[in-house]
Amino acid sequence: MRINLDFGAILERWPAFLSGAILTLELAVIATVFGTVIGVLGAIARRSDNPVATRVAALYVETIRNTPLLVQIFLVYFGLASLGVKFPAFTVAAAALTINVGAYTTEIIRAGFDAVPKGQLEAAEGLALSRWQIYWHVVMLPAIEKVYPALTSQFVLLMLASSVTSQISAEELTAVANYIQSDTYRAFETYILVAIAYVVLSLVMRAGFWALGLALFPRRRRLGTPL
Amino acid sequence: MGGSLNANHLSFLAHGALWTVGLSLIALIGGGLAGFVVALARISPVRAVRILAAGYVQLVQGTPLLVIMFLTFFGLPPLGITVSPLAAASVSLTIYVAAYLGEIWRGCIESVPRQQWEAAEGLALSRTQRMAKVILPQAIRIATPPTVGFMVQIIKNTSLASVVGFVELARAGQIINNALFEPFLIYVIVAVVYFALCYPISRLSRVLEAQRGRGRARLSVETA
């Protein structure tokens, strides 16, 4: 067996890889931002006194967490198409990823809410804080600070999972790789390079979240200890 | 082209669902065995082994499973190694699951209280005896809920075997959809079958988690 590797032909295509990687990051950022919004709303719904809101949120979380992302993407893609609405693949991909990560974020943030000690709430009431002040300063912010590491891991996993959107021809990194390997017949080299690119992207995201954490949570910055 | 969903289609889907279960079991067993080695290597007394295992975990956890699938299925043949879709899917899932289970189990082994390690050492047990007779039996109890929870991830991830043409549930749905073009109906059915496979396991993992919490609370009262 003679193994003959040639990365030159692949590296020549670096602009295509770069634009794919940028699209992957864009998908990740969009889904992270909107997924966080859904997660916060979902967690509030899960903990509310309204039984309908609780049920709907639970149904959403369980459905998403117990079905594969690939099937969810097909459902959103073909579901929208069968309604007669034609969206670009990127929009569909971003929507499907947001719906997906929103369910995981809901569970994580809910766990953060549950971890707020009862004594803190009583203390806040004793200090005559208003309902909204309590919700924001005593429940929401400390809860998110507490689950921040879990959230960031989830978002990095989401960035990796966005590779699945290549199946509905969103032009992100994996789709670019598929195209280049079929063009150059250098499948091994292409996918090795793309794997390395994903490792680099996940390191970039981790570094970004670390810096964001320092900016968002001054306590951590000043005292150097997690909550 | 055309036609409507009939019993043949449903039996094709059921066949696909069986392969989803089969592939999940292959991934669980293969990934479990390899993951056990990864977990032990991560806490090995030999520095080089620890670094190697950590590198493996970092690399696999930073790469999408889809790319691993493409790498084994499309990447190996040009190097002279031909692989069937089933082999490519099994190998990829094993590589992937090993990294995650290895990391989960390392955490479980390390969360066995320090004193247990010290007591085992004080009883002059060898490193192997200490592992096999003191640490692992306790670690297995700690590891059960997260491992059951991870099985849900495995089942969902087998859907990616469809990209290399292996006919499991998701691929079976795609094939039927290509004939009937009823995407919404077919993918809802596929999603429901995945849900039926995954939801009981999710519930089980939560029940086990709650039981363990109770068991630990009781234990801490007894020893207090």
Task: Chart the SSEs and their pairings.
The complex is a heterodimer of chains A (227) and B (224).
Chain A: H1 8-11, H2 14-47, H3 51-65, H4 69-82, H5 89-114, H6 118-126, H7 131-161, H8 173-184, H9 187-216, H10 218-223
Helix pairs in contact in A: 2-3, 2-5, 2-7, 2-8, 3-5, 4-5, 5-7, 6-7, 7-9, 8-9
Chain B: H1 7-42, H2 47-61, H3 65-75, H4 85-110, H5 114-122, H6 127-157, H7 169-180, H8 183-223
Descriptive report:
The complex is a heterodimer of chains A (227) and B (224). With 227 residues, chain A is mainly alpha-helical. Chain A is 80% helix and 0% strand. The longest helix of chain A is centred in the first third of the chain and has 34 residues. The radius of gyration of chain A is 21 Å and the shape is flat. In chain A, 41% of the residues are buried. The model of chain A has no long low-confidence stretch (mean pLDDT 90). With 224 residues, chain B is mostly helical. Helix content of chain B is 81%, strand content 0%. Chain B contains eight helices and no strands. The chains are: A mainly alpha (227), B mainly alpha (224). The interface between A and B is large, with 42 and 41 residues.
